[in-house]
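Onboarding guide, step 5: your first structure request.
Type a short instruction followed by the sequence, for example:

Predict the 3D structure of this protein.
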Amino acid sequence: MGFCIYINCPLDVCKDTGRYYYYKGFEKIYDMPPVVPEEHREFIRMKGNIFRIYANYVTDENSTSIENFVDKFPEWSDIVEGYDYEEYNEFWNEDKHERFYAALKWFSEKNSSCNIYWTS
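The system replies with C-alpha cells like these:
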C-alpha cells in the first residue's frame, strides 16, 4: 500500500441543534470551511515514502495538527539529506517542497481545526 498522507477537517455535530460545525480557535463555526484553492489541492492526499521523511521530523505519532506540522516543517536540506531521498528526486523536488509548505500554511491560517494524518 505504501505511505499515504492526507489533510482533513473534522466536522462535529451539535447535540443541541443537530448542525455540523468545526472549531476556529475556540469558536464553533457552523458554516462550511473555506474552499481550498486549486493550487493547494494536490497536497490534500498524497502517496509516497518521501512523506515519511517529513512525518519523522514532526512527530512519532500518525497524525498532528496542521499548525504543528507547519511549526516543525523541515528545511529542504533536511529532506535531501534524509534517507532514500535519491529514490524520489524525479518525483519530488524543492519546488514541490515549497508548494507543500505553502499549502500547509494556507490551511493553518484558516484556523479550521484541520489535521494531517499518515499511514505506513
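Each response can be followed by summary notes, for example: The chain is about 35% helix and 20% strand.
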